[in-house]
Amino acid sequence: MFRIDASTNRINPLEVKRFTELGFGERKHLQEWLENCPQALAQVDGEELLIIQKEFDGFDDTRERLDLLAIDKSGNLVIIENKLDDSGRDVVWQALKYASYCANLSKSQVVDIYQRYLNQKAQETDQTPANAVDNLIEFLEVDGLEAAQINRIKTQRLILVAARYRKEVTNTVLWLSQFGIACQCFKVTPYKAGNELFLNIEQIIPTPESTDFMIGMVAKEDEEKSADTEQKHRHTLRLEFWEKALEEFSKSGCALYNNISPMRDHWLIAGSGVSGMPYQLIFGKSEIRVGLSLQNSQAEANTFVFEGLEAQRDTIEKNFGAPLIWLPLPAKKACRLQYTKAVDGYDKANWPEMIEWMVHHMTRFENALRDPLRNINQQLKQISFEHSELP
């Protein structure tokens, strides 16, 4: 840090000092400064902090006391731990303990803690104490205390303050950030120029540039965890559904799925007698269906079979007993024809009816397509397409 001398148009370096050299102490000075100027710890985005207690020792069965306890605009409790010239090795563990203690504080307990602080401050200055509820309503910008969300689960924050940080401290803080624990490190450096003293307060973890990135990474990780959990749930659900469905198919007159095992996918296929063109059962959250998927490696073969079946559309649909959905999908290699039903698929109470529907309609679907597919397949075996031959 430099001091500007406008008269000489020069800058002169300020002398870096240690707190102990200047006779400053942790509680008497650094803690007092931050208590009366908490905005010094809100340099990154200009957020506001409200100090609600100092030297707080209201933890059951312990004699420990945290330096400063604050609340932010979102109603999160902020544990502030101050160390002078050296952070020491155990400051993170100390702050984490205090955060765990504070995590159990209810809204009424937070209000009571703040009111005791205001009472103590008023007593020191011989004034009438302010009202904690009124102050919190104003600070949190809510209509009433009942509308305020204070000290919700997993919202506690840590702020560490020291002139120098040991590597084991910074490494631990950076590691904790990966788990969504909000922990900031502020470096405080005293300077001297003649008889004047200066204090520089700089947030070093996370750096201002990395804060948004870290928040984004935590949000992305939460999103991925949520997606993974949902995927696992769906896999388990599908496996259970197919087990029950296959059991009912084994009792029916439809033999397509007699040698098929349950899967965790949303589809289950069975051979139709035509290469690369299986029958499909589909189990979705909002829809179930029976169908035929024409997905041979040769697009020409798929088109040939689809057009051959479509030429017999009236007969096929009459034998099936209802209009089918015909999907030539010209922009894709595969083609499909299918019959669907809207359902609330993930409600297990609906499964018996859904499975009965699948068994009934796949039986009719196979019967309606058996002869047309057999005839078209005989024709298909005699055809050599332009690009390559069918297997």
Folded structure, characterized:
The protein is of the alpha+beta class and 391 residues long. The chain has two domains: 160 residues, 3-Layer(aba) Sandwich (Trna Endonuclease, Chain: A, domain 1); 148 residues, Yope Regulator, Chain: A (2-Layer Sandwich). Helices cover 40% and strands 22% of the residues. Helix 8 packs antiparallel against helix 9. The protein is elongated and about 105 Å long. The model has no long low-confidence stretch (mean pLDDT 89).
Brief synopsis:
The chain is an alpha+beta fold and 391 residues long. It has helices at residues 26-36, 91-102, 107-125, 132-140, 167-177, 208-250, 299-310, 313-320, 351-380; strands spanning 2-5, 10-13, 15-16, 49-56, 66-72, 77-82, 157-162, 183-193, 196-205, 267-270, 279-283, 287-294, 325-327, 335-342.
